[in-house]
Protein backbone atom coordinates (compact mmCIF):
# COMPACT_ATOMS: atom_id res chain seq x y z
CA UNK A 1 0.00 0.00 0.00
CA UNK A 2 2.85 2.36 0.90
CA UNK A 3 4.64 1.70 -2.39
CA UNK A 4 1.47 2.34 -4.35
CA UNK A 5 0.94 5.68 -2.61
CA UNK A 6 4.58 6.62 -3.15
CA UNK A 7 4.28 5.80 -6.86
CA UNK A 8 1.11 7.90 -7.12
CA UNK A 9 2.78 10.75 -5.26
CA UNK A 10 5.85 10.60 -7.53
CA UNK A 11 3.71 10.49 -10.69
CA UNK A 12 1.65 13.44 -9.49
CA UNK A 13 4.77 15.43 -8.66
CA UNK A 14 6.03 14.83 -12.21
CA UNK A 15 2.72 15.91 -13.68
CA UNK A 16 2.58 18.99 -11.43
CA UNK A 17 6.14 19.93 -12.44
CA UNK A 18 5.19 19.66 -16.11
CA UNK A 19 2.06 21.73 -15.57
CA UNK A 20 4.04 24.35 -13.65
CA UNK A 21 6.52 24.73 -16.52
CA UNK A 22 3.70 24.93 -19.04
CA UNK A 23 1.95 27.58 -16.93
CA UNK A 24 5.14 29.63 -16.64
CA UNK A 25 5.58 29.55 -20.43
CA UNK A 26 1.95 30.51 -20.88
CA UNK A 27 2.37 33.35 -18.38
CA UNK A 28 5.41 34.65 -20.31
CA UNK A 29 3.42 34.50 -23.54
CA UNK A 30 0.52 36.33 -21.86
CA UNK A 31 2.94 39.07 -20.65
CA UNK A 32 4.37 39.41 -24.16
CA UNK A 33 0.88 39.60 -25.68
CA UNK A 34 -0.15 42.16 -23.04
CA UNK A 35 2.76 44.43 -24.07
CA UNK A 36 1.76 44.00 -27.70
CA UNK A 37 -1.80 44.92 -26.77
CA UNK A 38 -0.58 48.16 -25.14
CA UNK A 39 1.41 49.13 -28.25
CA UNK A 40 -1.45 48.35 -30.62
CA UNK A 41 -3.93 50.17 -28.38
CA UNK A 42 -1.67 53.27 -28.42
CA UNK A 43 -1.48 53.27 -32.23
CA UNK A 44 -5.21 52.59 -32.54
CA UNK A 45 -6.05 55.47 -30.17
CA UNK A 46 -4.00 57.94 -32.25
CA UNK A 47 -5.79 56.87 -35.43
CA UNK A 48 -9.22 56.75 -33.79
CA UNK A 49 -8.94 60.39 -32.63
CA UNK A 50 -8.50 61.48 -36.25
CA UNK A 51 -11.18 59.21 -37.76
CA UNK A 52 -14.97 59.31 -37.25
CA UNK A 53 -15.51 58.89 -33.50
CA UNK A 54 -18.65 56.85 -33.96
CA UNK A 55 -16.82 53.81 -35.43
CA UNK A 56 -18.62 51.02 -33.60
CA UNK A 57 -16.24 48.36 -34.81
CA UNK A 58 -13.25 50.08 -33.19
CA UNK A 59 -15.12 50.33 -29.90
CA UNK A 60 -15.94 46.63 -30.01
CA UNK A 61 -12.28 45.79 -30.69
CA UNK A 62 -11.11 47.93 -27.76
CA UNK A 63 -13.67 46.35 -25.46
CA UNK A 64 -12.65 42.87 -26.59
CA UNK A 65 -8.95 43.58 -25.99
CA UNK A 66 -9.74 45.02 -22.55
CA UNK A 67 -11.76 41.91 -21.68
CA UNK A 68 -8.87 39.68 -22.76
CA UNK A 69 -6.44 41.76 -20.69
CA UNK A 70 -8.70 41.40 -17.63
CA UNK A 71 -8.93 37.65 -18.21
CA UNK A 72 -5.13 37.40 -18.55
CA UNK A 73 -4.68 39.33 -15.27
CA UNK A 74 -7.18 37.08 -13.53
CA UNK A 75 -5.36 33.99 -14.81
CA UNK A 76 -2.03 35.39 -13.61
CA UNK A 77 -3.44 35.87 -10.10
CA UNK A 78 -4.91 32.36 -10.13
CA UNK A 79 -1.56 30.90 -11.23
CA UNK A 80 0.33 32.68 -8.45
CA UNK A 81 -2.17 31.51 -5.84
CA UNK A 82 -2.08 27.96 -7.17
CA UNK A 83 1.76 27.88 -7.14
CA UNK A 84 1.79 29.04 -3.51
CA UNK A 85 -0.71 26.33 -2.57
CA UNK A 86 1.29 23.78 -4.52
CA UNK A 87 4.49 24.62 -2.64
CA UNK A 88 2.65 24.32 0.67
CA UNK A 89 1.18 20.94 -0.27
CA UNK A 90 4.53 19.64 -1.53
CA UNK A 91 6.09 20.68 1.75
CA UNK A 92 3.39 18.85 3.68
CA UNK A 93 3.89 15.73 1.53
CA UNK A 94 7.62 15.86 2.24
CA UNK A 95 6.95 16.10 5.96
CA UNK A 96 4.62 13.09 5.76
CA UNK A 97 7.33 11.08 4.00
CA UNK A 98 9.83 11.96 6.75
CA UNK A 99 7.37 10.95 9.44
CA UNK A 100 6.66 7.65 7.66
CA UNK A 101 10.38 6.79 7.61
CA UNK A 102 10.90 7.85 11.23
CA UNK A 103 7.83 6.12 12.64
CA UNK A 104 7.89 2.93 10.55
CA UNK A 105 6.87 0.99 13.66
CA UNK A 106 3.62 2.94 13.88
CA UNK A 107 2.35 1.69 10.54
CA UNK A 108 -1.33 2.07 11.36
CA UNK A 109 -0.92 5.76 12.26
CA UNK A 110 1.15 6.35 9.13
CA UNK A 111 -1.50 4.60 7.02
CA UNK A 112 -4.07 7.02 8.39
CA UNK A 113 -1.91 9.93 7.32
CA UNK A 114 -1.46 8.41 3.88
CA UNK A 115 -5.20 8.02 3.52
CA UNK A 116 -5.48 11.75 4.11
CA UNK A 117 -2.66 12.34 1.65
CA UNK A 118 -4.38 10.09 -0.91
CA UNK A 119 -7.58 12.12 -0.61
CA UNK A 120 -5.54 15.27 -1.10
CA UNK A 121 -3.95 13.76 -4.22
CA UNK A 122 -7.41 13.09 -5.63
CA UNK A 123 -8.30 16.72 -5.02
CA UNK A 124 -5.12 17.74 -6.81
CA UNK A 125 -6.04 15.49 -9.72
CA UNK A 126 -9.36 17.30 -9.98
CA UNK A 127 -7.59 20.65 -9.70
CA UNK A 128 -5.06 19.62 -12.36
CA UNK A 129 -7.86 18.52 -14.72
CA UNK A 130 -9.66 21.83 -14.23
CA UNK A 131 -6.40 23.69 -14.74
CA UNK A 132 -5.72 21.82 -18.00
CA UNK A 133 -9.15 22.84 -19.25
CA UNK A 134 -8.47 26.42 -18.15
CA UNK A 135 -5.15 26.38 -20.03
CA UNK A 136 -6.87 25.11 -23.18
CA UNK A 137 -9.44 27.90 -22.91
CA UNK A 138 -6.73 30.52 -22.42
CA UNK A 139 -4.77 29.21 -25.40
CA UNK A 140 -7.89 29.48 -27.54
CA UNK A 141 -8.46 33.05 -26.31
CA UNK A 142 -4.81 33.96 -26.96
CA UNK A 143 -5.14 32.60 -30.50
CA UNK A 144 -8.23 34.74 -30.97
CA UNK A 145 -6.30 37.74 -29.63
CA UNK A 146 -3.49 37.16 -32.13
CA UNK A 147 -5.99 37.03 -34.98
CA UNK A 148 -7.47 40.28 -33.69
CA UNK A 149 -4.00 41.90 -33.53
CA UNK A 150 -3.40 40.96 -37.16
CA UNK A 151 -6.77 42.44 -38.14
CA UNK A 152 -5.93 45.66 -36.25
CA UNK A 153 -2.55 45.91 -38.01
CA UNK A 154 -4.24 45.41 -41.38
CA UNK A 155 -6.90 47.99 -40.59
CA UNK A 156 -4.34 50.54 -39.39
CA UNK A 157 -3.13 51.40 -42.89
CA UNK A 158 -6.73 51.59 -44.11
CA UNK A 159 -7.59 53.95 -41.22
CA UNK A 160 -4.68 56.22 -42.14
CA UNK A 161 -5.76 56.34 -45.79
CA UNK A 162 -9.37 56.99 -44.84
CA UNK A 163 -8.27 59.75 -42.46
CA UNK A 164 -6.38 61.59 -45.22
CA UNK A 165 -9.33 61.24 -47.58
CA UNK A 166 -11.69 62.39 -44.83
CA UNK A 167 -9.61 65.51 -44.19
CA UNK A 168 -9.71 66.37 -47.91
CA UNK A 169 -13.47 65.79 -48.03
CA UNK A 170 -13.96 67.92 -44.90
CA UNK A 171 -11.97 70.80 -46.41
CA UNK A 172 -14.02 70.56 -49.62
CA UNK A 173 -17.27 70.46 -47.65
CA UNK A 174 -16.25 73.53 -45.64
CA UNK A 175 -15.72 75.43 -48.90
CA UNK A 176 -19.11 74.36 -50.18
CA UNK A 177 -20.76 75.27 -46.87
CA UNK A 178 -19.25 78.78 -47.00
CA UNK A 179 -20.52 79.27 -50.55
CA UNK A 180 -23.95 77.93 -49.63
CA UNK A 181 -24.05 80.22 -46.60
CA UNK A 182 -23.31 83.26 -48.74
CA UNK A 183 -25.94 82.19 -51.27
CA UNK A 184 -28.50 81.66 -48.50
CA UNK A 185 -27.79 85.10 -47.03
CA UNK A 186 -28.18 86.66 -50.48
CA UNK A 187 -31.47 84.84 -51.01
CA UNK A 188 -32.68 86.01 -47.61
CA UNK A 189 -31.97 89.61 -48.56
CA UNK A 190 -33.75 89.16 -51.88
CA UNK A 191 -36.75 87.58 -50.14
CA UNK A 192 -36.91 90.47 -47.66
CA UNK A 193 -36.88 92.97 -50.52
CA UNK A 194 -39.61 91.06 -52.38
CA UNK A 195 -41.72 90.75 -49.24
CA UNK A 196 -41.35 94.47 -48.64
CA UNK A 197 -42.41 95.22 -52.21
CA UNK A 198 -45.39 92.85 -51.93
CA UNK A 199 -46.54 94.51 -48.69
CA UNK A 200 -46.22 97.98 -50.21
CA UNK A 201 -48.12 96.85 -53.31
CA UNK A 202 -50.82 95.30 -51.14
CA UNK A 203 -51.33 98.51 -49.16
CA UNK A 204 -51.32 100.52 -52.37
CA UNK A 205 -54.02 98.29 -53.87
CA UNK A 206 -56.10 98.57 -50.71
CA UNK A 207 -55.76 102.36 -50.79
CA UNK A 208 -56.79 102.55 -54.45
CA UNK A 209 -59.73 100.21 -53.80
CA UNK A 210 -61.00 102.42 -50.97
CA UNK A 211 -60.57 105.56 -53.09
CA UNK A 212 -62.53 103.92 -55.88
CA UNK A 213 -65.36 102.99 -53.49
CA UNK A 214 -65.59 106.60 -52.30
CA UNK A 215 -65.98 107.92 -55.82
CA UNK A 216 -68.82 105.53 -56.68
TrEMBL record:
Pfam family membership, one: CFAP58_CC
Ranges of residues in domain Cilia- and flagella-associated protein 58 central coiled coil: 27-214
Record-level GO cellular component terms: cytoskeleton
Highest taxon of source: Eukaryota
Coiled coil: 2-29, 114-204
Keywords: Coiled coil
Signal peptide: none
Keyword Coiled coil belongs to the record: yes
Cited PANTHER family: CILIA AND FLAGELLA-ASSOCIATED PROTEIN 58 (PTHR32083:SF0), CILIA AND FLAGELLA-ASSOCIATED PROTEIN 58-RELATED (PTHR32083)
UniProt name for this protein: Cilia- and flagella-associated protein 58 central coiled coil domain-containing protein
Source organism of the structure: Strombidinopsis acuminata
Amino acid sequence: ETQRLEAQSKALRGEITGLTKELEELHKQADSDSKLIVEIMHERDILTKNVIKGDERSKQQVELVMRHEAQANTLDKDLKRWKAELQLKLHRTHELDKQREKYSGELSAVRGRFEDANEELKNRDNTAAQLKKHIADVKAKLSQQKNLYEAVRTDKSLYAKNWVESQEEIADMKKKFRMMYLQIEQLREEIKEKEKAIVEQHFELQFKSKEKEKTQ
